[in-house]
Task: structure prediction
Amino acid sequence: MNFKSIILSLCFLIILPVGVFGAAAAFLKMDVGARPQALGGAYTALANDVTSIYWNPAGLARINQPEFNFMHNEWFEGINYEFVGVAYPVEDLTFATSVTYLYMDEIKEILRDTQGYGNGRYWETGKLFTAENMALSLAFAQAIEENLFMGVNFKYIYETIEDTSASGFAVDLGILTKPSNKLGLGFVICNVGPKIKFIKDEFALPLTYRAGMSYQLGRNFNISFDIKKIKDEKIDFSAGIESWFGEWLALRFSGKTNSDNKLGKFKGLSTGMSAGCGFKLGNSVLVDYAYTPYGDLGDTHKLSISTKFGTKRIPTPKVKPIKVYQPIKSYEGAKPEITKPLKKPEILTVRVKMDNVAIWDGPGSNYQRIATVSRGTELPVLDTSKKWYYKVMLEDGTIGWICSTFVE
Result:
């Protein structure tokens, strides 16, 4: 057995139940999704797809159409990490569920030589074993206001190594806001839950705090920053850039510091750099790839495929007819005649469901904001051809566009 094989075996022990450093479910610290990985994990404020269930459950509220995502991660030799998730928006809520699954090929059991037998520090027993880690998630997210989103994710965790297993529960809480059209801010706390009992001892989950910021430069360029703090580890910083070329190709690059997760003791384990790309196929399929080098241990490759299906979330507006009456005719000595209302084509109106909802200069939040309206305001609709936005008229005659999600 060579030294590299020993290092690989010890490395994997870190993500097994409990591991060699006393932390349970350490696999929960592994990133999900090729796009976030290519951005170095700077995704807390950018989250807007199914992988938000891991990065920031509040981002699920930004999904306006049912979406499916599958990820395959080739980690180190014989180690694989899979993710499958589905998000489904219904009226004002978004529901999502996912499975993350970490597994390995059979490896030889290695024990440390403490009795003087064998020719080195470690020796093989000839016994084979394997290990698996799994997390099942169920998440809910909602837009509290037009640019304020909140979400929660409930997780069931199951781990097994050889003939020993352990299980537990955890909760993730996230918030995301858009103070302006281009700026995004996010915060999430992950893995809040009781200790997991493994064999006779109890071990804490990897409690994690993340705060992030994103900024959009133009229509096709994003930059993002994240700060992450895992309990009992140093603060981690990451930054990523993403540029879209047309509607079908995206290039991504990132850099981050190495957190004090014990792995850093191995020479050349992590360079802190990642890169990747994305390809949009048609209107609903997106393929993402991420590459992350780990020095002497090798490189990792992550591939994600996501697709949208079904119909978009569009509230059904209520129609409020406007009654128009004929003038009352009267003359001296005659009784006034009251006529019935004339039939006139019904005018579609909508009622605002939240406070401080923006009116945009065009059909999208990338246009200039020209006004805000409060809860209960009724607006006549002039155009419904844009699926997510209605063209409306304000009381002063101003014409603009309002997001259909925030009206009824």
